[in-house]
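Dear colleague,

Thank you for sharing your sequence with our group. We've completed the structure prediction you requested, and as agreed, I am returning the results in plain text so they can be pasted directly into your records. Please verify that the sequence below matches your submission; if there's any discrepancy, let me know and we will rerun it promptly.
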Amino acid sequence: MNDKQDFFPQYLSAPLQVLWFEADELAVMIIFFTISSLYGGWFWLSLILGPFFYLRIKKKYPKSFIKHLLYFAGLKTPRNYPSFFEKLFLE
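Please find the predicted structure tokens below.
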């Protein structure tokens, strides 16, 4: 038996959440907070408008569309998946 305790979520399809924000929403807020703290002034308005527009765009598209965009742009490769050009995939 393995002594290490592995985390197993109650619901497999549930996204990682911090309070009532999903992880990607929280990341957008942190990015806009960093930009606002560096530049100040009117950039503090982006702390409210940036996440607001991000959430509106996110609700228009299916779940995890951002991961798909990053994959098609070549910026991120998913783990344990075949490449985009594979014709046959056996599990």
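Summary note from our side: The mean pLDDT is 79.

Kind regards,
the structure core
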